[in-house]
Amino acid sequence: MFRLMALVAAALTVIAAHGTEQPDTLAPAPREKVSNTLWIKQLLQNGFKIHDPDVAYPRFPRFALKVYDWGNNTFNTYDTTYVIGTGCNWKVQAKSYNWMETSAILKEEKALSMHSLPYCDAGFSLSFMAVSVGYMWDMNQLFRHPNKRQTFNFDFTTSRFNFSVMSAKSTGNMIIDRFGDYGKETHQHTHIKLDDVSFNYRHIGLLYFLNHNYYSHAAGYTYSKYQLKTAGTWLVGASFNEESVSMDFGNLPPEILQYNPLETTAYSSHFRDYGVMGGYARNIVLRPRRWTFNFTATASVGYRRSLNTDREGRRDLRSRIGNRVRFDAALVYNHRALFSGLTFKSWALSDYNSKMYNLNGFVSLQLNVGMRF
Asked: Are 234 and 268 a contacting pair, CB within 8 Å?
């Protein structure tokens, strides 16, 4: 009996010893720690091919890539018989941006109208997918004294919608081309320089493309898609507009000021609009992958809140109907990796009551020449 127990104990000892050694022989080798910045170096080496399986993304960049893929599949898909991608993520562009402002006031059959001298900017931009950086120079400094003006434009375009933010601010640099009955008797052309004037405008808009499977807004304005067949779409959306205008005619010569169609030498207007937008856009394909012409027309209507105040600081609490119209057009030429685009944009805001009608507008012309890679 004792001998049998000894044999069992010896067998258990061998099994236990073998069991303790087994994990050591099967245990995987310790994983080598991957640098948190290695993925950046890998992207630089492969030309930013973000879906390369060899890129060692850390947890958060991999999560961000998954979010991007979801957004791209949801908001950037088309019927490929109508729209296809260019196959490039990078763009470098040279830009020439030129714009001017207009204003007109009609009161009791007498009119006052003016326009700014053209503002000219030139610069460049570098874009990677939806991210872009660049710089523009004030070219007016080369031809005359610098003027006080500032613009900001932001556009985010997908297959389904366009989100835009725009602001423009300027002081002086206006030419009066009609001032009541001034020059009417002598048939003299009116050309009066006015620097005591300022314009400040802001716009935020969201447009949804109802026919988003077949129409690409990016083909006409961001050069990231090719429209292969002519297609159009109805547009719906919402907008916010704010405008502040101030004019002072007090420094004009008395022989001109006597024809002032307004009751005062100082005029100001400040209001905000909250409205709904609608319109239509169309890409006309003149030659697939080469020539594309786009036109986009929209109008908004909604609630207008006046922010005007009198000399005592009391606010004008009147509410009115706000409206805005806009027309854009673009002509795009593509040649392999090279592209060029001519873009025209315009909008107008009107403000009116029983005594006065005021229409302020903005016009711009932009030329872009660039390369995709």
From this structure: no
Angle 137-141-144 from CA coordinates, rounded to 5°: 155
- Residue 73 phi, psi (nearest 5): -70, -30
Q: What are phi and psi of 36, to 5 degrees?
A: -70, -10
Lowest-pLDDT choice from 23-27, 67-71, 238-242: 23-27
User: How crowded is residue 65: how many other Cβ atoms within 10 Å of its Cβ?
Assistant: 14
For 143-290, strand residue ranges (E) read 148-157, 161-171, 174-179, 192-194, 197-209, 225-227, 231-248, 266-287
CA distance 217 to 227: 9
Instruction: Report in angstroms the alpha-carbon separations of 195 from 142, 151, 263, 270.
Output: 20, 19, 20, 19
Query: What is the CA 308 to chain-centroid distance, rounded?
Result: 29
Q: Which residues pair with 25 in a beta bridge?
A: none
HSE at residue 272, side-chain half, CA atoms within 13 A, is: 6
Burial 91-118 (b: 16+ CB within 10 A, else e): bebebbbebbbbbbbeeeeeebbbbbbe
Is residue 221 within 8 A of residue 154, CB to CB? The reply is no
- CA 299 – CA 325 distance, rounded (Å): 4
Q: Rounded to the nearest 5°, which phi and psi values hold at 359?
A: -125, 120
Which pLDDT tens digit goes with each residue over 102-124?
Answer: 999 998 888 999 999 999 999 99
Q: What tens digit of pLDDT does each residue of 129-169 get?
A: 877 888 888 888 776 666 788 888 899 999 999 999 999 99
pTM above 0.85, yes or no: no
Distance of CA 20 to the CA centre of its chain: 67
**What pLDDT does 18 receive?**
43
Please report the sign of the dihedral spanned by the C-alpha atoms of residue 144, residue 145, residue 148, residue 150.
positive
Residue 175, pLDDT score: 95
pLDDT of residue 31: 54
Helix, coil or strand: residue 365: strand
pLDDT in tens, 246-270: 999 999 999 999 999 987 899 888 9
Q: Which of 115, 250, 260 is nearest to 173 (CA)?
A: 115
Which residues on adjacent β-strands are paired with residue 112?
A: 105, 179
